[in-house]
Amino acid sequence: MASAADRGGRGAFSLATVIARGFGVMVGNPLPIFGIAFLLGELPQLLLSYFGPSTATIQIDQPNGIDTAWLLAVFAIALGSLFVSLFLLALVQGALVRVTLAYAQGRRASLGESLAAGAAKALPLIGLLLLMVFALAFGFALFVVPAILLYVRWAVASPALVAEDLGVFAAFRRSAELTKGARWQIFLLQLLSLIVILVLQSVVAGTLGIGATSQTAGATPTIAELVAMGAIGTLTTAAWASLQTSLYIGLRDWKDGPENDTLADVFA
Q1: Residue 236 burial (10 A CB sphere; 0-12, 13-18, 19+)
Q2: Residue 253 is part of which domain span?
């Protein structure tokens, strides 16, 4: 990878530019950004929370012990729900990456284009997500610091996978290349993003009068709680995806120079 001098004196990596672009895409493209985040990210979860069986209603009332067939059915339903959740998460992530990339190119991605990009990359993104979760969990078991280092190193793996049509392991390598030399700044951005998201969550919950622990465990949520959950989840998903993709664009431009031609190829 080229040194700072080899990059023609493009200057230092700018967190301010990353943040401005991240919030700019949300303001400039509210319908696809928040629409995708809500319809595919939050709405299915809200419907499951409201209409799905609660833990309070799942009881084992079998005098001769647990029915194996019943247990297998419960396991199959749980596994299927997990896969659907992961698929929707990957679909949303891929689609929002496409919206943000289009914004950086100076145009707006259509809803269909964004969803097609998300669907095409959903399975690789699921694989990337699972590997990252396992690696970070192992890192946390080693006293947290390794997990933080890995997360910062792989911060833009998902956007790189979608934008550059990479495989899972190639996306991890690409993220490691792009983040090298700016990882303290990336850590600061992740920390600021987390603080902003927590503040937004508190504002939404406070405005709707919903406490963080107001819902009784296992109980069906109220309408007010569903509204709060939906608003918080939508804001969180949209903000996180926009900022992470903006970070990828900033790092790519810093390391490789602006790649409008490459983006045009991606959108072709």
Answers
A1: buried
A2: 15-54+67-267
